[in-house]
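re: ur question from earlier - yeah i can do the single chain one, its not a big deal. heres the input i used so u can compare w yours
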Amino acid sequence: MKTPTSTKAGAICARAILVTLPLVFFAATVQAQTQIVYDDVMRNQWANYSFNGGSDFANAAPTHNASAASIAYTPTTAPAFNAVSFALPFAVGDTSTAMYPVLHFWINGGANSGQQLGISLGRSDTAAENEIQLATGNLNAYIAGGGVAANVWREVTVNLTQLSPAYNGTYDRIDLFSVNGNQLAVYIDDVTLTQAGPPPAVNQLAFTHDIQAPANAPDAREQMNSDIITWYDSGAQPRKATLAHDAVAHDYAYAASGTGTIYGVAMRELQYQLSNGTTRVARYTGYGNGGFGGFGYVTDHSSRFAGCVGGDDSPLGDLFPPSGFQRIFEGRHHAIYRMTQNYRRNCATTAAAVAAYSLPVTIDWVFSTGHDHPLWAITYDVDLAFKVSNPGAIAPEGTFFDDSRAPYGEFGIDGAGFTNISGVGWGDYRNFTSDPNAVTLTLDTSWTWNAPNTIPFVKEWIAGVLDASNHKDATMGIVQTQTNAQQDAAGARDPGVGSDIRNLWDTVSGPANLGCPGTGHTLPCPNDWPYQALANSLEFEPNGTANARMTWKTQYGFIGQHMYDLNDLKAGSSGTAPGYKKKSYSTYIVLGQHSINPEPVDDQVAQVSTVQSVTFPNVLTGSVVTTGPAGNVRADNVMYNPAGYNHVYGALAFNAAGNNVDVTINVTGTLKKPLIIVSNYTAANPTLKLGGVTLIADADYFASLRMPASELWITLNSSLTGAGNHLEILGAGGAAPGTPTGVVATASSSTQVDITWTAVAGADFYEVERASSLAGGYMQVSPANMPTASSFSDMNAMPNTAYLYRVRAVTGGVMSAPSTPDLATTATFTNNPLAAGMTIKAIDLSQDRSAIDEVRALADKVAFAYTNTGVAGTTIQSIDITEMRTALDDAMMALGGVVGGYTNPAGVNAPIRAIDFQELRTRIR
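and the output i got, formated as C-alpha cells:
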C-alpha cells in the first residue's frame, strides 16, 4: 500500500481535541470479548481518521439491521488516495492482537458489486503521530461469499494476525482503502473487534499491494512499485512472489555497462522453502543485459536474414513501461494478475515499412494453493501493432518476421547468483540433456539428444548437495501447457542462414559429432539452440557461467507472418502455422531443488503430458467444456484438446448445472492436484465429494469464488489415478431454482419502470437487474432479499433512457440463470396513444425518432441519420416510417428483440397511419 500521509495530523478528528477525553489504558489482563468500534457512531474512544474525502460516517441508507446510520465510502486513488480509517488517539493508548485479534463488520456494495479493497494495520510511534504500517492484506479474501455484492450485506471477518507480514503486537489504527483505482461507493456497518471468529484458512493466499522500498534504498530496483503474493505449494510450504508493476523509470548501475533505466514489468523475486527448512530467495541479478529487470518480461528477435530492416532487432521488454496492471482475481486460494505493455518492434520486412512500432502484449500471472509453480500466459495482438509516431497507423500483416523469447530474464537461482550452472536441457521433438554428472557446464560438456519428446520445455540446474551457503542444488525451467503439436515452440532454424541444427536429433556428442562446426566445441552452436536460455552467456564464458538466463524461443515468423515454418521434422519442413492476427501460449515458471525426485521441471513436463490422456466417460450433472478462448484476453475460441482441458490456465474445465457438477474422470497415469475451473457457478462455497467421500474444505481441496466471472476455482489436494475418479461438486444451498419467465417491463413515467414476471415455485426472493448499455452489462436495482412478490417498480430510472430488465430467482442462497430480458424506454410522447383518425404531427415524428435513438444507445449504436428534419412544418413521408423501422430493427437485432412483422407495408407513397407510429412506441416502451 502507498501510505498517503506519514502522520494522522489533518484527519477529521484532531488529537488535540481528544486529549481531554477520559483515558482508558488497555492491559493484557483485560479479556473483553467484543469491543464496538462503530455502530451508528464511533464508540470506545475509537475515532474517525479517514482522509482525503469520500467518507460519510452518518450515512442514512443502506444500513445493516435497520440501524440509524452506516459508513458510506467512495474509494479513490486519484487525484488523491483516500481511506476509511479507525484510530485510537495517541493519548488513549494502543490495543493489541492479544486482546483483539479479529476485526468484524458488514459490507454492502450498494448499486454495484466487485469493489476491491485492502486493509492496513498501523501504530503511531510518537506523540507526533508518525504512523508505522504494520501489516496489510486484501479485504476481499475475508468477505463471506467471495467479495462485495450489490445491495447485499456480507459478513467480513479478518484475523489481524494473519495479514502480511504476520504480526502480533500493539496497534492503534485500521485503514480500509482502494486497491483498484477509483471505484463506486460501498457501505460499512457494525464494526467490532473481537477475540473469536472464524479465522482465514491457514493456507490461503495473502496479498500485499504497492510495496516500495525507501527512496534511499541502495538498489533503485527495490523502489519499484510491486505486489507480493504469498501462497502455499504442494508441500504446504509458503512461496512468495514479488511482481513489479511500475511505469516510472528506475535507474540501475553496473560497472561494465554504466547506467540505464528500466521499468517494473516482471517478477523481481521468488522465495521458496528448501528441504533443510531454510528459505531460498531467487531474484534479479546484476549481470547486465537481461538481468536487471528480473524474470518474465517480453523480448523478441527479428530475423536479420529474412528481411529485418531497421534498428535494434531485440530490445528488452523492461526498457518500456507497462501500459496497465490489473488484479484480475484475488481469491481465497487463487489469483490472476494482468500486465499490459506496448512492446517496441524496430525491424520490418521491407524498407518501406521501417518505423518504430508498438506491439500490444498482455501477460497473466496465475498463482494457486497446492501448486509449486506460477503460470505465465501471453497474448500478442499482432493485428493491433501501431506506429509509435502515429498510433492510428496499424502495421499490416507481414510487417514483422519475428520470434518470441518471452518469458525472458535472469534470476540468481542459487539464491545469490554466483554459482556456476551445471547443466542445461530442453525439449522440442527430442529431449536434449547435457551430462548429468557435470559440475560445471562448458562448451565442451557432452550431451544426448535422442529421446522422443512431446511437451516443450527448457531448464538449467546447479548440481550438488545443499551446503552451509545453500547455493547448490537448484533448478529453473519453463514448461508449456500444451504439446508441440498443439502449440509449436522451439526455434530450430534461422531462415536464410541454413543454421538448422535438427540434424543433431537422434544423436549424442562424440568424436564423430563435435557439435558446433568449425569450433571444436562439443555443445551445439549457442546461437542455434532451440531455446536461447544461457547460450549466449556461455558463448562468452566457455568454461562455465553463473548467468542463469532463462528464455523461451519460437520460430521466426511466429509473430507477423501470414504463415511460418513449423519446427516439426528432422529433414525439411512438413507444416506451417499462422503468425497473424493473434499469438498466445501459456507456460509454467519452475523453480526448485534439482535433487528432488521427481526433478521439478521433469515433473511438470510429466503432468502436462498426463493431462493429455484425460477423458470423461460419465457426465451426470453439468458438462465438459469443449471450447474456449485461444489465449488470455482472446475473443476467438478454439476447440480444447483434449476436451475439458483449459490450456490457457492449465485447468480441467466444466460447466455447472444448477451450481452442481457430477463427472467421472479417467486418466492414464497420475494427475497430481489438478486445478479445476467451473463456469456458470453462482452459489457460495461448495461441497466436494471424491469417490463418494465428502472432502474437507481448505484441507482436501482449496476453493475460490470468482464472482464477477461466475466461476469456481478448485485445487484438489489429492491425485487422480487411473479410471473411475468420481468427482461431485455441490453448490452451497443445493440446486438452482427455475428461471423466471414472462418478464414484462413497462415505463409508467419518465422515471419509473414497472416489471412483472411469472412466479417461480419455491423462490425465496428475486433480484431485478437492468442494463443501460450492452457493453456496460447489468446491475441489480431491486433491494436485497426482495419479497417473493412477482413484481417490482424501478423508481430510479432516468428520463429518456432505454433499459433492458431481467429477473433472477434465489432459493437457499443459490441464484437462478437470468430471465430473457425485456425492453422499456422512459420516452416522453406529447400525443399518446395515437389512434386511427388522429393527425400525425412533426412532434410525433421527432419523439418517435428520439425514443428509437435511445434504444440504439442501449444497443451501443450511434443515432440514426434520418433523411428529413422532422421539425414543425415538416411533411411526414413514407420514407420516415421506413427509416424508423430500419433504425429500430437494427438495434433490436443486437438486443435480441422482435424484428420486422409490422402491420402495414412502408414503401414509396404508402399512406401515413397512426398505427405505424404507435407500433414503434409499443415495441420500445
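The chain has five domains: 15-200, 408-606, 618-730, 741-825, 842-924. not sure if urs matches, ping me
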